[in-house]
Amino acid sequence: MSTAELSREGGPAGSADREQDAFVGAVAGTLADFLESKRGMLESISPDTLALLDSIRALVTGGKRLRALMCYWGWRGAGGAADSPQIVAAGAALELFQAAALIHDDIIDRSDIRRGGPSVHRQFSQLHQRHRWALDAERFGHAAAILTGDLCLSFSEEVFAGIGPATSAGSRAREVFDLMRAEVMAGQYLDILEEVSGPSKPAAGAVDRAQSIIRYKSAKYSTEHPLILGGALAGGSGSLLTAYSDFALPLGEAFQLRDDVLGVFGDPATTGKPAGDDLREGKRTVLVGLTLAKADDDDARFVDERLGIQDLGDDEIAQIRAIIAGSGALAAAEGLIEDYSNAAFSALELLDIGVGPAAALGSLARAAVGREP
Amino acid sequence: MSTAELSREGGPAGSADREQDAFVGAVAGTLADFLESKRGMLESISPDTLALLDSIRALVTGGKRLRALMCYWGWRGAGGAADSPQIVAAGAALELFQAAALIHDDIIDRSDIRRGGPSVHRQFSQLHQRHRWALDAERFGHAAAILTGDLCLSFSEEVFAGIGPATSAGSRAREVFDLMRAEVMAGQYLDILEEVSGPSKPAAGAVDRAQSIIRYKSAKYSTEHPLILGGALAGGSGSLLTAYSDFALPLGEAFQLRDDVLGVFGDPATTGKPAGDDLREGKRTVLVGLTLAKADDDDARFVDERLGIQDLGDDEIAQIRAIIAGSGALAAAEGLIEDYSNAAFSALELLDIGVGPAAALGSLARAAVGREP
């Protein structure tokens, strides 16, 4: 998330911008220090295991920090201090959790590319190939990435627990963190289940099913839970946390719908992933559900039969794109993004959190749903 | 671990036996209650997600509870009370961690069988086949099992944090738990790395490399860390925890060596896994390292070339077994088991922990290294 968007020097947004930069820098520093603190332990086991640490470090170095920033402004909006190490650690824990989820997600989706470079399982299969090791490179890559993701998930928890009493058993913050983890894993399961079981289920329910998947695997996880986590850590009231939810849940839904549109129509230079990758992965998104409902029977069947074909050609991708646009599904998806965004921005107006946090959340929200460079 | 082995009614071991039964029952109850408490949350996302919970429940229902029991007697030996909910929760957290590790380990090793039934990834690929869903059943199974393992790993942490202040940031218990998780993942990475890179490394170092793998992926994790965790939770002194280590580390090494011997020579009815499975998986164990060092060149090459061949025939498995036995490698491995066991039992004699805990640890140790039914 470019902080340049927030920049209006002198006004409250300008000061929010400087504050946000400081926070992002502190999260990056905490992540670097934490990972560095694990080097000696891993090296004493074997220098070979540093490859896992390197993969994690590369992954948490990049990214938009959307979750950490939602958490930060949730904290600030609830009265948390700007320079607290607690909220920096919470941001770092969320970034590590996100990295773990991406590592395993890329294995599940067979995505070989992440942010323009090789995904973790590809890094390890390339390591295998470079050394001309025995047995199967791809299998080694998957196995190593499963373990790297597990390690990263444990690191996330370690950093979260390190926040102290505010995240101890029974705290609201831990409740949110635990729920977030369980919901995103359950939501991801629904996602892969829909890929395989969707074709044999009533097409009429496809949009509803896809919206449920969005809610759990992405919306709650990317925006709602991080914002509430920040608020809870700062001791925000129940009514504030509910108001956070009213803003962040539709925002997250709009964010994921935008992601789905970009997954089919996005520019690889911006998304960092090959064009049409979601179609090859067989993702049955809301956009796809709308297409199956709106396209004529022949077109719908054309799309339905090609979802999940790994070596789908660029020509067929182009044809599917034309069907999605021509059927009115793309316009309908854009309409949904608009509706969810409007709901989010209306709820944002009602948040009683001060000018700085409100302006910062507004900028984050605009960037999340528009995703303009 | 059958508690019948501990049974000498009337003596201290008899009372330890009753106590151990009560603990095992309490851990099972806590696991059942915890998982049941997650049902509503998952059901509200979608009843389909209960399949993940069912897989976890089935896995934590069985097993020998070795780690939970080591933890319990470490706690009791350090003066912890017999009926504390804290140690029951610690046992449950260790069992959930072990279940998560097994789920991912079975994907990595392509083990379709666990405790005589289908492993988790097989359960999900069978679910796919029963419903005649679209796309690839095996791929769906792997993806679902990755997510189930992640959920189980998060559950483990949730239960561990639920113990309370004794596992808060900076506590010795959390330090042990964090180290255990990182070491077992790093150790497992060394294990898969040796499978692929072992053939191109000097054969002379194979036994040393295999012993390092054993230490991290198994010995520390199965016996040393759980015992120390129990001791730390009860506030045991640094010197007691060091003495625990002197006992439990060689015990864990003997335990894993025994497991390696059973992985090649074990009776499937006892191990719950197909005969010779470790050879098909290409595990480069200490037993294999000893074979490569001791067999003549032709025999060593015969073994080396067949490790990791998935469809290795029973005839070839039998030939490899004959080479392992004939070369003296099997006897050498048994000798190592004997040496490690002796070191463990000598250290056990020196533990100042009272008659009951010492007798119980002795029984656990005998069962772990002998693995007689």
Notable characteristics:
17 helices, homodimer, two-stranded antiparallel ribbon, mainly alpha, disordered N terminus
What does this molecule look like?
The structure is a homodimer of 373-residue chains. The first copy, chain A, is built from 17 helices and two strands. The first copy, chain A, has 373 residues and is an all-alpha fold. In chain A, strands 1-2 form a two-stranded antiparallel sheet. In chain A, helix 13 (286-294) packs antiparallel against helix 14 and helix 13 (286-294) crosses helix 16.
The low-pLDDT segments of chain A are 1-10
Percent range for β-strand residues of chain A: under 5%
The pair of chains with the biggest contact is: A-B, 66 and 66 residues
Q: For the largest beta sheet of chain A, what order do the strands appear in spatially?
A: 1-2
Class per helix and strand makeup of chain A: mainly alpha
Largest sheet of chain A: 2 strands, antiparallel
Annotation field: number of helices of chain A: 17
Rg of chain A, Å, rounded: 21 Å
Order of helices and strands of chain A: HHHHHEEHHHHHHHHHHHH
Q: What is the residue-averaged pLDDT of chain A? A: 92
Give the tally of β-strands of chain A. Answer: 2
Oligomer: homodimer
Distance between the termini of chain A: 9 Å
Shape of chain A: globular
Task: Please estimate the helix content of chain A.
Answer: over 70%
